[in-house]
Amino acid sequence: MKVTVFGIGYVGLVQAAVLAEVGHDVVCVDVDQNKVDNLKKGIIPIYEPGLTPLVTSNYEGGRVDFTTDAQRGVEHGELIFIAVGTPPDEDGSADLKYVLAVATTIATHMQNHKIIINKSTVPVGTADKVKGKVTETLAELGKSTTFDVVSNPEFLKEGAAVNDCMRPDRIVLGTDSEKAEKKLRELYAPFNRNHDKVITMDIRSAELTKYAANCMLATKISFMNEMANLAEHFGADIENVRRGIGSDPRIGYQFIYPGCGYGGSCFPKDVQALIRSANQVGYEAKILESVEAVNYSQKEKLFEYIMSHFDGDVAGKTVALWGLSFKPNTDDMREASSRVLMELLWEKGATVQAFDPEAMEETQRIYGSRADLKLTGTKEAALDGADFLVVCTEWQSFRAPDFDLIKEKLSLPLIFDGRNLYDPKTMSEYGLHYYAIGRGLSIKGQKL
Ligand code: UDX
């Protein structure tokens, strides 16, 4: 089938590559000429396992192409995805200007029936706005072309996006048109491996499904972080509690890992956007407000532990920091806990000596060159001349380090672990002072 994807960001590019891989004929449109040129040369703008070979082989095979020519894009696709960004505006609401600009572009160039599919995460009611925009533009141009608007939210995780897209748990389709539904079922047929993954519903429910899914996951995390903080006060170990409650299948083991807060491009933005949308209809989303507040303070947790350990004075200290990205297997630093920590440490006059397997360039891009930030080539080099170690991201390569080497290199035998990677008993056997999240070790006066 002929498909066009507007917006070669994270969602658009992965979706386009995967649709091309299963044999569809895909054209991607973006306003960024540089991005388009790079993609044609096999330079992928984001780090995502498996994406580069997928894009390159499908480009070389002629199944996916990249262009800035919107007219060509609109003429090409009978199915047109909108996958442009919806950045938060000043008050945290999703800004729809890019989505609506694409709607106008589609209406301007369309000459026959089009199915317009909203893939961007957008507030409930956006499909109606897209419909309105297309109708208005067609009327202005005196065209009577017909179209459908479908909501088809994505649920992919960074670091696992290709796999999530190739093997989706579910494909949510919000539509009021049987014809559009039939076409989309045809489009997604290659992904229905063992059973039908398609769940159809009305458009508004599909739009809310996306927010409900992310907000539910964010709620699980903030809830666990609250339990971790309580465990800290009670002298209990949240890791035992986690195993204890996860064994109940109604609760489950996933997304109940306590830590130094959630980040990324989705959870913080979506929780905030749903709070704002709720406010706009006169509803106060109390649970979501708490989820956000708990996460906000959780990102400062490691800093609190550090301040408490050093009685508020870290001026002149060098902090080894392992992990900069908001989670492993990505170079994405958006809303990363490491940023909150680094910025607080800098305010107090400390120097950060950091290593991340993927996010070094991104860190450099965000913070530029500054005397109190040193980026090192290996995790071991980050320890050189450092006073203590902080872990912010649970990269696989941080899980079983050489603790003797850590102790030898640091001037103080001290680790602050924001992801609970290590066993407190083992740490004390190595003679390392160990702070973790919710393990009853971090209240002042309870230092190992
Ligand atoms: C998320 C959703 O998982 C995905 O379905 C949606 O489409 C987009 O948003 P992503 O932002 O890529 O995906 O990352 P995810 O793996 O969900 O992690 C988000 C954050 O939560 C990370 O900072 C992670 O460290 C944190 N997290 C996750 C926890 O702190 N504890 C957990 O138990 C799980």
What is the CA-based Rg, rounded?
A: 24 Å
Poorly predicted regions are none
Give the CATH architecture of the largest domain.
3-Layer(aba) Sandwich
Q: Termini separation (Å)? A: 63 Å
Number of domains: 2
EC number: 1.1.1.22
Binding site for substrate: 155-158, 210, 255-259, 263, 327
Pathway: Nucleotide-sugar biosynthesis; UDP-alpha-D-glucuronate biosynthesis; UDP-alpha-D-glucuronate from UDP-alpha-D-glucose: step 1/1
GO molecular function: NAD binding; UDP-glucose 6-dehydrogenase activity
How would you describe this protein?
The protein is of the alpha/beta class and 448 residues long. The chain has 2 domains: 2-201, NAD(P)-binding Rossmann-like Domain (Rossmann fold), CATH 3.40.50; 202-448, 3-Layer(aba) Sandwich (Rossmann fold), CATH 3.40.50.720. Helix content is 43%, strand content 13%. The radius of gyration is 24 Å and the shape is elongated. The model has no long low-confidence stretch (mean pLDDT 95). Bound molecules: uridine-5'-diphosphate-xylopyranose. Uridine-5'-diphosphate-xylopyranose is lined by residues 154-158, 214, 217, 221, 255-257, 259, 262-264, 266-267, 326-327. Its EC number is 1.1.1.22. Pathway: Nucleotide-sugar biosynthesis; UDP-alpha-D-glucuronate biosynthesis; UDP-alpha-D-glucuronate from UDP-alpha-D-glucose: step 1/1.
